[in-house]
Amino acid sequence: MKAWTLWILLLCTGPVCAADKNDPVLFPATARVELDAEGVPRGVQASSRLPVPVREAIERRVAQWRFEPARVDGVAKPGITHVRLQACAIPRPDGSLHIGMDYQGNGPGYANDALRLPRLPYPPAAARAGSQADIDLHLLIGEDGLVTLQSMKATRGSVKEFKAMLEAWVAAMRYVPEEVDGRPIATQLRIPVEFFMSERSRRREHQVAAAKTPECIAAAGQSDAPVDPVVLDSPFKPLQTG
Questions:
Q1: Given 41, 73, 139, 239, which is the most exposed site by the fewest CB atoms within 10 A?
Q2: What is the CATH number of the domain that holds 29?
Q3: Residue 139 pLDDT > 50, yes or no?
């Protein structure tokens, strides 16, 4: 097996790791995208944490995408956004990989070329008590990339037992802000967080099964990331991400 194939296996997301060297592997990917005033990518730089063949495949694909440009006083401006993808690597008999990918979102990027948010631990006391919750976090990503927690609201369960862990998790986040016409901008994010226990094994079984479906070849499988940020106000709206 080639070295960069092993590198991909190290990137796989938890239970969606390949059990065999010929199994599909799901993993997250990110890229920085420079856009002109018409929303056309003029430069794409995939995360340096990815192997070179994967970076090249992502950069070729994203370069074909189109975005609605940011506007200042009604005038379209160039800028920089960061895209998140769910990628899938399918090993070929010759040792190479077929890479598929699917657009997940765009907005500010993760600092230090990270591929995902920091891992969110389950608070030990909540785990011992069997407590579960779904919580929506609303964050402000400042022009300096620092994160301000604006609110947290439970849509299932209670915030109380998870509050301290979530505050520490948010405090550890760092972002690279988007830019419009050469200037960094602030962005709002919503992050839906799930703390669950009894459903964990069923969800993992679903994710492992997803890695073996035709959708994985097209990189349309489900991500195993515990959270997926939703950008609320990026000025760059995707028009074509096929």
A1: 73
A2: 3.30.2420.10
A3: yes
